[in-house]
Design a protein that fits this description.
Elements (H helix, E strand, L loop, with lengths): L1 E6 L5 H9 L6 E8 L5 H8 L3 E4 L2 H5 L2 H10 L2 E4 L8 H4 L6 E5 L13 H10 L4 E8 L9 E8 L6 H26 L3
Parallel strand pairs: 1-2, 1-4, 2-3, 4-5
Antiparallel strand pairs: 5-6, 6-7
Helix pairs in contact: 1-7, 6-7
Bound molecules: glycinamide ribonucleotide.
Glycinamide ribonucleotide binds next to α1, β5, α6 and α7.
């Protein structure tokens, strides 16, 4: 059984979707939800779904030995689903090719610090893009720069707004993210 921890900073609708997807799996289990935001809706979702959760701060993530040991001992894969802080090198080193992020645009466009959620969708509209999409990628030490695993596009219509694009992107995320996570984990032989 491979164990997943999901990091999320806000609503956590992807986290909930991933938890539900693996709830009957014999091979993959979401064991923990971790958030930097004590007010994040993802906490309510974890409670509702009976998944244990942890709230952490910058020290925990970047320096605490206890936090690192918890991950190394209890988790095989880390999934970032709407997590907004830079992920530290010390954790990345312990999970080579085992930390996966989803980004709501077609990287390398619209990535980097500050490019998250609605900021991305507003920028896409401002630049009159004809299409946008999702990128699922491994995490390295820079925002949104790790090797790409999967991308899917969606057209932008004339009447689209940042909100309507956010909806379209969420639909793609719900459809593909759990399946891509599953295929990466089941192909791995570590
Ligand atoms: C998702 O669209 C995800 O791609 C994006 O935040 C949203 C979280 O939604 N992530 C980023 O922008 C990371 N740079 P959710 O909390 O409802 O899952």
């Amino acid at each position: 059984m491979k164990r997943i921890a999901i990091f999320a900073s806000g609503s956590g609708s992807n986290a909930e979707n991933i938890i539900r997807f693996f709830s009957d799996s014999a091979e993959i289990k979401v064991v923990s939800v971790l958030t930097n935001n004590p007010n994040a809706k993802v906490i309510e979702r974890a409670k509702k779904l009976n998944i244990s959760f942890k709230i952490f701060n910058k020290f925990d993530l970047n320096e605490s030995e206890e936090f690192l040991s918890f991950l190394v001992d209890e988790v095989d894969y880390v999934i970032l689903a709407g997590f907004l802080w830079l992920f530290p090198k010390r954790i990345i080193e312990k999970f080579p090719q085992r930390i996966i992020n989803i980004h709501p645009a077609l990287l390398p466009k619209y990535g980097g610090k500050g490019m998250f959620g609605m900021n991305v969708h507003r920028a896409v509209i401002d630049n009159q893009e004809k299409e946008t999409g999702i990128t699922i990628h491994y995490v390295n030490e820079n925002y949104d720069e790790g090797a790409i695993i999967f991308q899917e596009k969606v057209p932008i219509e004339l009447n689209d707004t940042p909100d309507s694009i956010a909806d379209k992107i969420h639909q793609l995320e719900y459809k593909y993210f759990p399946k891509v996570i599953e295929s990466v984990i089941l192909k791995d032989e570590f």
